[in-house]
Amino acid sequence: MNENDAITHVVETMSRVAQWRINNFDSTSPLQSESFKIGDRHWSLILEKRRLNFVIILIPEWELSGHDPLIASFNMRVVSLVGGRKTLTRARVRNKQVNYPDRFVWMLKVPLTRRFIIEVEFLDLKTAYPNGGEPRSIWSEGFIGNQNAKAVAAFGRLLSESIHTDIVICASDGSIGAHRAVLAVRSPVFNSMFTHNLKEKELSVVNIPDMSVEACQAFFSYMYFNNMQCEDFLTYRLDLLRAADKYDVADLKDACEESLIKHIDSENVLERLQTAFMYSLPRLKVYCIKYLVKFGKIFDIEKEFNAFVQSADRELVSEVVDEIISAWKGV
Question: BTB domain: which residues (predicted)?
Answer without folding.
Answer: 165-232
